[in-house]
Structures are given as structure tokens and as C-alpha cells.
Specification:
Elements (H helix, E strand, L loop, with lengths): L17 H8 L5 H7 L5 E3 L3 E2 L3 E6 L5 H14 L8 E5 L4 H14 L2 E3 L10 H12 L6 E5 L10 H16 L3 E7 L17 H5 L2 E8 L7 E10 L7 E7 L6 H6 L2 E2 L2 H19 L1 H12 L5 H12 L3 H10 L11 E5 L5 E5 L8
Parallel strand pairs: 3-7, 3-8, 4-5, 4-6, 6-7
Antiparallel strand pairs: 1-2, 8-9, 9-10, 10-11, 12-13
Amino acid sequence: MKAFTPPPKLHDLGQETALDRLHGFSITGNSQSMRQQMLDDVFVLQDIAILGQWTTLYASPNTGKTLLTLWLLGEALRELKVDGHYVFYVNADDSFKGTVEKTELAEQTGFHMITPNLNGFMSSHIPEMMVQLAVTGEAKGVVIILDTLKKFTDLMHKRESSEFGRISREFISAGGTLICLAHTNKHRASDGKPIYGGTSDISDDCDCVYILDKLDGRMFEDEIAVEFVNVKARGDIAERVSFSYAKKHGQSYAELIDSVKRIDHGKMEELRLSAELTRQLEEDDDVIASVRTAINQAVTTKAAIVKFVADETGHSHAKVRKVLVVRTGAMYSLGHRWSVEIGAHNKSTYSILAATEPAL
């Protein structure tokens, strides 16, 4: 019987095999050249966005995300942490006046401002440019800031968001830096905190995500406090960073930029507690108003107040009792809205608390 002769292997015939291709894909042995390509751990936005990463900042409109991003960028440029020649701020969501003001800022600070419909630029050029920069090896050190992200991809469309993420990852892998400004959802989470808008693809694909929120704490009348809260991190970035700015009628954008200040952790904790108290008071507003009505109508005992308020608001007796207890005290600034006196037979009598603090 004739012995079986196996067919010649493809590589014996000069053809590339699947195994050959896998060996070709291997990067083992390239670590030294790859390390030389690595970027230093430099912040483009101090404590928030690192050079060579993709960072997305989510905030509701008029929170100050553009203002604070530009302020932080200016800080990095002044301290020579990044080279403005390679920084491109794409302002795609602004009025003409706003575009002029921000372009003047770019000229003074030393970075590039790009705007759709000026100098032949269109928003659709950005994905194309990121691909070209990655392919040609020019991406390293280039910083692209997109304001806002919805102008460059459909955040509600999973396929488009995923494709944008793929292109962005190629750009980042080639040494580029991407910072995207995006909007939060119109509706907040059950705890009152903002949540990012659109599908999860962008937050899944990028390196770092921050959600910005205004705090309704004790600030001066014209000052606004904003907190950056990290929800996804790669690298040594801050969990929380806080700023304030003063918004006054008739001020220029330059004056608005100059008003930005960092807020220390102690002050921010005080503001956060104050903001949470404000949220709770708003949540219990109808019960509080009904309790006031009851007391004003001489319904002042605990059992009578609970029944009156439950009947008027439709809330359960348990809910009303809880608010009644939490809002009882002598410090209006701590959220107390009425005081109580315990009389004979352990009878509780409630009275409305004045909106002033007692003398010490």
C-alpha cells in the first residue's frame, strides 16, 4: 500500500499562513521603541485630563464647562505644560459674539481656535483628521478639544457613537489627546445627581469621565460653584475638583475667565452639604408648606399636624412624621423649620421657626 504523503504547507509554497500573520501582529520585542513613544504623565487640564488620553466632561447647559475648560487650558499653557502650537479647540456650539470672544482668548493665550463654517472647516472634518494624524504619525502631542461632542457624533445613536469611539481610540493610541465636552441628561438620578446623556458607548470607550454640577451652597450672590466628579479614571487624576466663578451682568468674557478660582476641599464639603440640604428641602417642600399652614391655623400638636398634612398632601403618615422630626430644631441654617416644646403629659406643641439664627 502506498504511504500517505501530506500536502505541502502553505508557507512551504511561499504563501502566508494564519500563523505567520499572527506572528506578524506580535509586538513582543518592540517595548523599547514603544516606551520612547510614550508621553509623560502631563496634565492638559490640571488634575483632570492627562496628555495622551481621551477625557469626556459632561455637564448641563450653562454650568460653565466651556469656561472652566478654557481657564484650565490657559493655566497649562502659561505653565508650559503643553505647547499651544499643537492645541486645537473646536468651538462648534457658540454664537458669533462668543466665537469672537473665545478667539481673542486663544490669540492671547496661544492656542488654535477652529469653528465650523469659517476658513472652510466643517465638523465632519474632525474624524477624518484624527484618522490621518494617526496614520501619518503626526498625532503625538496633538490636543483636540471638542465643544460640544453632539456636533461631531450622534450620542443617541449606538452605531455612530461606537464608530466615533473607534476612530478616537486610534488617535489616542497614536499619541493624540482628546477632550470632549458633552451634555448631561435633562433628568437627574433619584439622588438628584446629574447623569450623562446618550448611549454608554462614549463613556465606555474613553479613558476618563467627569460629571460637572453646580452647587447651591453658600456663595456670594454673584458667585457660582461647580464641582467636577470623576466617574471613570485611568491614571493619577483627582476624584473631585471644584471651582467658582463670578457671573455679573455686562461683564466681558475676559472678566468672566479672570473670576475663576479653585475651591479647597474644606469649603467644597461645606458647599456640598449645603447643596444637599437645599435638595432635601425642595423635595419636602409641599410637606413643609402644609405643616406651616397647620401651625398657622393653631393645629400645633404632633398627632393633629400629621393628620392635617397627610390629608392635605396625600403623603403617608410615616412620611409626614419623618419630615416633622427632621425639620424640628433651633437652627434655621441646618434645615430646621419649626421648634417644639414638650409640656405636661409629654404633649408636643410646635411653633414656626424664624429665618434667623439665635444669638450665641
